[in-house]
Amino acid sequence: MLLRFFEKCLSTFVSLVFILFFSRRTVFEKKTNRSEKVIVLGNGPSLRTDLEAVVKLSSNSYIDVCVVNDFAFSDAFFKIRPCFYVLADPNYWKEGVIGELHVRRERLIDILANKVTWPMRVMLPVEAKQTFKLNDATSQFVAFEFYNRTPVDGFDCMKFRLFDYRVGMPPPFNVLIAALTLSIANGYKKIFVLGADHSWHEELSFVDGEGVLVAQKHFYDNEAERKPVYKDGSEFFTIGDLFIRWGKVFKIYEILALYASYRGAVVYNLSSKTYIDAFPRATIEEFDEL
Q1: Count of CB atoms situated within 10 Å of the CB of 50
Q2: How far apart are the first and last CA of the chain?
Q3: Kind of pairing, strands 204-207 and 211-215?
Q4: How far, CA to CA in Å, does 10 sit from each of 83, 152, 154, 265?
Q5: Angle at 199 between CA 193 and CA 201, to 5 degrees
Q6: What pLDDT is stored for residue 228 in this prediction?
Q7: Fewer beta carbons under 10 A from the terminal one: N or C of the chain?
Q8: Strands 84-86 and 120-125
Q9: Among 109, 264, 138, which residue's Cα sits nearest to residue 190?
């Protein structure tokens, strides 16, 4: 117990140091006045099953919708007309992006600048502020806001307050972690997650000469090519690396469940297929009862 206490003290201290050096002041509007509920859509394959129901729900004035990463490349984006769009992948803003990644970024900028015809808030990490092509994405309908993704750990009472102040969040290993943290901090009382399969381990393979390959499938993909997963730079993840990282992701959802409870909120997992066990499970057919 004593060792655990000192570990928490150290984690809290390190988090405060990181915040001091890496976090920046941000300005956030509160959630839209119309809703206590928000649907957060991951891009997992299971979303295909639930997409029609989500489109119907999104037409209700009392429900907000948050989407992430490449969701704008699907036809459903223009039917759902989300209020929030969260980006976390550095390839959306870092310099020197080439090839397919550059094409995707330019396509997204064009959609934001020329094809969004409803009010929408796009949320990016603060480090994107100086590099993301905001001028190219200028639109009367799109507003950009920035969040700190400085990793925060330590005592719950301290880290939850830091989440509230938006100076940091749990280590955002994926964009869904960022989207859920922001949704809770923005004051939503009921957060509904769909498309959060997290079944990456089912797509693992090992090929001599190529190493560990993963097919990272999305609901809008016809096929997903099996590829190595890169760390920073040119080094690949091993199977051991991947399972350690995925394990950390699932533990972070447990932290977010506690954070939601601290804020008087609940995160429901409505995904048709999912391995996330940190949040109460329900089906989209039960939405109105929750």
Answers
A1: 22
A2: 38
A3: antiparallel
A4: 38, 12, 7, 29
A5: 155
A6: 75
A7: N
A8: parallel
A9: 264
Residue 202 lies in a domain: no
Given pLDDT bands bounded at 50, 70 and 90, which one contains residue 32?
A: low
Tell which residue, 140, 137, 60, 54, has the closest CA to residue 93.
137
Number of domains in the chain: 1
Which domain range does residue 150 map to? 2-196+267-274
Residue matched to tokens 């119309």:
34
Residue 33 has pLDDT above 60, yes or no: no
Domain presence at residue 256: no
Residue 280 lies in a domain: no
Kind plus residue range of the DSSP H or E element containing 85: strand 84-86
User: Does pLDDT of 42 surpass 90?
Assistant: yes
Question: How far is residue 187's CA from residue 25's CA, in Å, rounded to a whole number?
Answer: 19
Distance CA 151, CA 177 (A): 11
Q: Is 215 exposed, middle or buried (0-12, 13-18, 19+ CB in 10 A)?
A: middle
**Per-residue tokens: 155:** 């005592």
Amino acid at residue number 262 = Y
Residue 224 lies in a domain: no
φ, ψ (nearest 5 deg) of residue 75: -60, -30
- Mean pLDDT (the chain) is 87
